[in-house]
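Please go through the sequence and fold tokens given here and tell me how the chain folds. Record follows.
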Amino acid sequence: MMSGSDPTPPSSDNPEVEYATPTSEYLRHRLQTMDPSHFEEFVADVWGELGWKTRTVGEPGDRGIDVIATDGDGKQLIQAKRYGPDTTVGSPEVQQYASLRLQEDGVDDVVIVTTGTFSQQATSLAPELDVTLVDGETLLEMLDELEAYEVFVEHFDDIHVVGDEPGRGETTRTEKGVIGWLREWLGW
């Protein structure tokens, strides 16, 4: 169980601390207010939970690549867009980031992860450009499905996992690898 309403963990002085599971709205708000570079690290950690080796790149001169994820011979370039609650990623950004695959050798997929949403045009265009889109709601669903609560604990001081340590959810990977599984999971 995750907690977010009381940042004080139980102690011998106060063993009766009551914990509440934070809502997805609370968690999404926390992601939307993160420092953008910390959000890039958060996304790298999520992909680590999916079984990828990750490296954050986001620095001046990164050419739009925030995270590089590898899994054996597979390689993904990830653009992490930490946006506020009413921000939508449109088709121009999808077109722009689709070209990231030209900047590195052996790229299997380009992924755009945002705390916001994607416009209908972006959602329609992405499959044509072979770009995977992960909006804020889907990102939270992925973490819940993976039971990767410790990713929040690592990035937010006021969120704690209490009780027995949750196990990681088992991910079913198809012959297509994690990207195939992710696309099936996203309904593509």
